[in-house]
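step=encode ok
step=design start
structure_in=
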């Protein structure tokens, strides 16, 4: 399938964003790239690499950058140069944007590249919940093909966390006896969920959260209509994740945050009609992405409130001009910060449970608002 074929969705694509394979460069994560380049220069290119870190920080983009370099570069670059007594040294994973292999990668026709991800169920119009053993077994025929021009093969698994037990065991056999000149790139959001034996057979590249400057730069590369005034809020609310920032931009995350902040600012007595009107925006949105963003914004408000109360420090980046005043009123002491922290965890769990069992979103949101009201009363000694 061509990477730009929209007829079949892929699980590694954020709505409204470019596919990770389209990026010409990786923004941020220079340390990880330096580590990989160093391994090449020292002739220690391991057969399996695990790229870890929070969701949305560019792990898939980084994996594609590695794959492009490996597929476009001859294997001899890892050894001594034909015209020198010293090994060929590289400084970057940059490649010629007009390289013929790169064009094949973009067209989805490069035979030395295989992508493993959750398959799409065309009948049910959704992605399967897991990567099954069938997806890993397909690699057997991939490995059986002769690598053109004696080059490498590359496998990207996005995300390794999605494998079920049988798939993980099948992959372990591949890692134990890796095919020659084959590099496996495992993307993992939570490596602790993977088999220890899989982790032990991979070299790890840990990618950290992105800076606001990095997120702003990434958003500028996307074909998204974003109000310049919202850029700072998107960076702050995304917690260092460019992918999260894109989701928030698509679903009015900053506006939802402001609405929630406006409601809790009324605590310890929140106006009932206002709370109901706010909740009714989510009528019949049980499986909506908008509802997920709502839950995330509740979490962000309470997390920022808790940190402010516990430390007494003004947030480095304000999302709303009235945050400090509101937080000061609702969380005046470190003890009240503990209460807010516990509520934040409780509401997060309740929200996820409600989403799982398809509770009425209006009732779910109202329940969260009233629990916030009760916690505000307790913080101010009114209960």
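sequence_out=
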């Amino acid at each position: 399938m061509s990477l730009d074929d929209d007829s079949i969705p892929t699980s590694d694509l954020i709505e409204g964003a470019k596919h990770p394979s389209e990026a010409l460069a990786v923004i941020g994560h220079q340390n990880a790239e330096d580590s990989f380049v160093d391994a090449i220069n020292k002739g220690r290119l391991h057969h399996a690499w695990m790229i870890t870190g929070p969701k949305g920080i560019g792990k898939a983009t980084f994996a594609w950058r590695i794959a492009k370099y490996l597929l476009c570069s001859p294997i001899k670059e890892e050894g001594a140069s034909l015209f020198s007594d010293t090994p060929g040294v590289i400084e970057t994973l940059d490649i010629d944007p007009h390289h013929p292999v790169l064009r094949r990668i973009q067209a989805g026709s490069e035979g030395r590249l295989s992508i493993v991800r959750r398959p799409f169920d065309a009948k049910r119009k959704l992605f399967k919940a897991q990567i099954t053993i069938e997806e890993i077994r397909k690699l057997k025929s991939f490995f059986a093909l002769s690598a053109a021009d004696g080059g490498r093969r590359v496998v990207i698994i996005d995300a390794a966390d999605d494998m079920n037990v049988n798939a993980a065991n099948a992959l372990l056999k591949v890692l134990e006896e890796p095919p020659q000149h084959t590099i496996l790139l495992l993307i993992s959001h939570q490596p602790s969920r993977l088999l220890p034996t899989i982790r032990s057979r991979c070299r790890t590249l840990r990618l950290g959260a992105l800076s606001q400057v990095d997120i702003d730069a990434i958003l500028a590369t996307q074909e998204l209509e974003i109000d310049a005034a919202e850029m700072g809020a998107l960076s702050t609310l995304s917690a260092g994740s460019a992918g999260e920032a894109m989701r928030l931009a698509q679903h009015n995350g900053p506006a939802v945050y402001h609405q929630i902040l406006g409601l809790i600012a009324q605590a310890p007595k929140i106006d009932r009609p206002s709370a109901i009107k706010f909740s009714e925006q989510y009528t019949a949105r049980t499986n909506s992405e908008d509802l997920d963003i709502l839950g995330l914004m509740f979490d962000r408000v309470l997390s920022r409130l808790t940190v402010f109360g516990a430390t007494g420090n003004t947030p480095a980046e304000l999302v709303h001009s009235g945050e400090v005043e509101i937080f000061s009123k609702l969380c005046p002491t470190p003890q009240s910060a503990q209460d807010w922290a516990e509520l934040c965890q409780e509401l997060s769990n309740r929200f996820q449970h409600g989403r799982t069992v398809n509770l009425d979103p209006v009732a779910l949101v109202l329940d969260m608002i009233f629990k916030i009201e009760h916690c505000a009363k307790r913080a101010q000694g009114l209960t």
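step=design ok
step=annotate ok -> Residues 251-379 form one domain.
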